[in-house]
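Hey all, sorry for the wall of text incoming. These are the two entities for the joint prediction.
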Amino acid sequence: MTAILRWAVLRNGTPLPRREIPLLEGAVFRASLIESVADGARVAAYFGYLPEGEPGVDLYAVLAFREDGVLRVARMRVTGESFPSLTPACPQVHLFEREIAEQFGLTPEGHPWLKPVRFVKSCRPGHDAWGREGDVQPLIGVMDFYRVEGEEVHEVAVGPVHAGIIEPGHFRFQCHGEQVFHLEISLGYQHRGVERVLRGGPDKRTIHYMETLSGDTTIGHTLAYCQALEGLSGCSVPARAQVLRGIALELERLANHTGDLGALAGDVGFLPTSSYCGRLRGDFLNMTALLCGNRFGRGLVRTGGAGFDVDAPLVEELRKRLDLTLRDVSNAVTLLWESPSVMSRFEETGRVSLETCGEIGLVGPAARASGAEFDVRQDFPSGIFRFSQIPVSTGRDGDVFERAFVRWLEIQRSGDFIREQLQMLVAGPVMAEAKAPAPDTVVVSLVEGWRGAITHVALTDKDGKFAAYKVVDPSFHNWMGLAMALRNQQISDFPLCNKSFNLSYCGHDL
Amino acid sequence: MFSIIMARLRQGHRTIRYPRRPPVLPDRFRGLPVIDQGLCGNACGGCEGVCPTGALMRRDGRMTLDLGLCVFCGECEKRCPKGAVKFTREHRLASRGRESLVVGQEAVLRARLDETTRKLFGRSLKLRQVCAGGCGACEADCNVLTTVVFDLGRFGIQFVASPRHADGILVTGPVTKNMELALKKTYDAVPDPKLVIAVGACAISGGPYTGHAETCGGASGVVPVDVYIPGCPPHPITILDGLLRALGRIKE
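and here's what came out:
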């Protein structure tokens, strides 16, 4: 019970000297992690790292304790070729362990679902978790897929290239007639090598990687990065910039939630809301473009503050547009809840129970729809959210309807937040100078992106350069949720379930 | 039913008048960059130093900017002490040749396809979109063309589900190694004659991912590209302009 107290405590965006991260014995590390997660902690990050000048691989874990608002970090060292898997006792880490296995060529012994994540070579030549020969690039999609066999069981394989304008990924359904027994999702097609090139940074390209980690979450990821860097360099961001960043983050949420509600309507053939929301999503993006010239917020969030300021006419224009757009969104979205043909498709489709949600560690609206009250803006607030709280919106049943309805609740609350912030925008500068990052320091930065908790972990070396930079997109936690939602559903409900999560491929593949 | 009709009336007609009327762009929009060679003097190299993708380069004693690499961040404009680099509000950026994307060398805006191709596809163009490492922003701004605001269908252009039904492919993303084969296969599945349109800095040159071993540095190393539409991401109007210009539907 007390072993968790040996973990180092840190807060969102606050630096800690790396020497304070305890190196625990494997058994203590595992027991305290399993126990804490069973008690309600979440695994925010779990990754491997090659310690300087020493043999073996260090495994770092970051746990998030929402009730205390603290993060705890510790590490253990693996010197052999394998380590005991935590997944059977703590399923939340299943993908993290697969990632460690792939990147470092270590085998998590007893992992029930050990498959490649992004189909990349191990960073330790000659070590491979699957015993593949030589130092060659693995072929994407070549692995053992889960298979159900029996009379009238058939397999449907889709992708990587899909029918719509959407990112690539491979999906395999094990079906019995219309019914899906299991969906296996195999990704990695979008892998661009981001984490590899982040090491040794920050440099002039770093922020552009952040802005394109997942294009629809430009503000979320860039904010997480800037928060990490500001923590490392002890930079205090001016209040006005904090407000502008908060507004941008909520505009991003508004745009994506509105777009997804429209797409959900489209997936059940309800064209009115589908076409209205398509337009309204663009109206929110155009508001972001009012701030910074780019619809996705490129250039808006910068280390030390905000890249752009606003003047009174711009604030007025924003407020005017926001009111009009929100009124039209309300009109378009209300149609969904009033239409029995829509509700009958949304309700009881793609259900994820609160229990499953906790076991696999879902985040964001997908988790809140199942009743998990987890929101970084409330639990680990940073920036403007330390002063202005947004109530957490939750559902109960975890079906497509709840995932849609939670988005609608969040749209209203984000709208209220922006209105309030625009009314009392503090005066002052929008940029503070950021010094070089501190050497040998660790920082964990959390942001509630529109898909859920974004986690960035930065470790600096003796020169203040990134020794490691770990990015955990909310999609990394949530892809398994989509697979679980599809169990015993009709295969024709896949687009609907998929859109109710709307996960990022490139955020996962990095 | 009644509320659906009321909502329809309320939401109104939203399709923009473009291309008959000029597009409405945000005040802070960063369009085509221009370099004033007279002001530049080509001495300090400050802009080269801050450019994240190496888009700025001295060629034959002139400072040039490669639109294919540019992510339109505007750092060079901020950095230049003489104000020689400026991002204008010009949204027309598409080009047929990779070389003519270089600002400071020769004029751009040469997106028009040859006569035969225009005859074939000018009134009806079906495209299969392939995202090959794109971050989702270029994809979103292609997707938005199908909304009521841009109503791509009115120009006879449509995104289709199968390469077999397509006249060409529209590529986004730096083309990851893991997507190289899929892109090639999709291209091969499109019946001849066919077009390839590369949208966004990534698809043209790799963009921020240029030089990564995990990517192919854009589409042109894998499939032959006919039209380049720069931006990070290009504004939907820029993409629409590129498509229409390629088909000869907008004439200058």
